[in-house]
Amino acid sequence: xxxxxxxxxxxxxxxxxxxxxxxxxxxxxxxxxxxxxxxxxxxxxxxxxxxxxxxxxxxxxxxxxxxxxxxxxxxxxxxxxxxxxxxxxxxxxxxxxxxxxxxxxxxxxxxxxxxxxxxxxxxxxxxxxxxxxxxxxxxxxxxxxxxxxxxxxxxxxxxxxxxxxxxxxxxxxxxxxxxxxxxxxxxxxxxxxxxxxxxxxxxxxxxxxxxxx
Length: 213
Known about the structure:
four-stranded mixed β-sheet; about 25% strand
């Protein structure tokens, strides 16, 4: 039996956006076998061995989770004109307990927030701002079809980041200072209201887990 999300992505969503249905078998998805799992984008396998992922989940809901490669799905619909979607959607297969729109990145800590390019002085958008826009656009595309997402009890937009700072690339002192700045930013992000169809905006720095409840 398909989840409500897979049925939606094979029928209503493509009918609205490209004028035809798609086969549910063409939608890349994986069902984690363990309550704790890690995922990564742009690899053949979504679920990764411990220590190899970017986004980490612990399923405490008692419901089976699935991970849908949403970016691959949107590229399948419009291969000549990719939408620019978030990486994954995680949902409870047999219920409407939770749905998570997840954008992943591996980045040095100095590029998580908006920053100024040292060589040019140009202001650049950081990974977090980019992730927010990707998730917002993805959520909005659902609501262009109907209010399907409102059936879920817990709706989350999750930014997951794996920091790549290394002592060989810069001094350990500078790396740890940047890391602390990122960690100070996280509570502020959670307190800020994110007005996007009732979704809660959260962040996780690897290997902090996001709990599915």
